[in-house]
Here is the input.
Amino acid sequence: MASPQTGLFALGTTSHAYLELDVVPGVDPRAVVARVASFREPRTTIGGVNLVAGFRPELWASVAPDASPEGVRGFAEPVVGPGGATLPATQHDVVVWLSGASYDVVFDLSRSVVMSLAGSAGLTHELVGWPYHHDLDLTGFIDGTENPSLVEANDVAVVPDGVPGAGASILLLQEWEHDAMNWEARSVAAQEDIIGRRKADSEELDPKPPTSHVARTDQETFGKIFRRNVAYGTLLRHGTIFVGFSREQARLQAMLESMVGIGGPPDALVAVAQALTGAYYTIPSTDALARFGDEPDR
Here is the structure.
């Protein structure tokens, strides 16, 4: 039985860093995978920090075709709706997600990761995130009301045994910047219509507005996903780091297409939040990644 990387389900951490890196031209991708796998952390914790590592789906498939989920593709092109709403594609080669109880230890390990990969993969994008009032996002609404429990999460987020890529997960990583002035200028009732839930208790509106975020990303329609979203930013520029895991990429892609208005009205949320990045990563099982951990550098 293939085991997923344990950090996927390590709830309760208060500091997060998301490091996206690109392989240096001319470097063998297998050597980069081996270097990442040598961190060992996908199987344990270092100083209280969880480390989850993933790769552009095509890169992982090129070095571990027998351990790759079928049909998974990178975020190579923007998702564009018929009205022009656009979710950008900013795919990178490697992602390392670090989470811990305090940012000092997360920062130290982040620096070690980047220095260890210097010369083979360079840091291209970095995000630092933190929970906001336990389970709110910066809109003031509860985030993750429909999230499965930890008992259910493995079935939702992890490729099952008996199929290619068993134990792996598909990650959709996006940076969503909030239009804070636009949002705060709206009444609570108007905000609730956009989200599709009551702000006070997260109860779903009945009937739910057809353009609400709840309606356009209904997991009863598209399938369940497991989210680890956190807040990021400063007073001037802030928003949500969307961190969504699924056993099937199709669920994630269908939600994105629905949000921009493919197959229905666009999600009202895109009027008050803008996606700045978008990338898919294969998060290999610990077993598959461990096969590379003892390989010598090339």
User: Anything to note?
Assistant: The first strand starts at residue 15 and ends at 23.
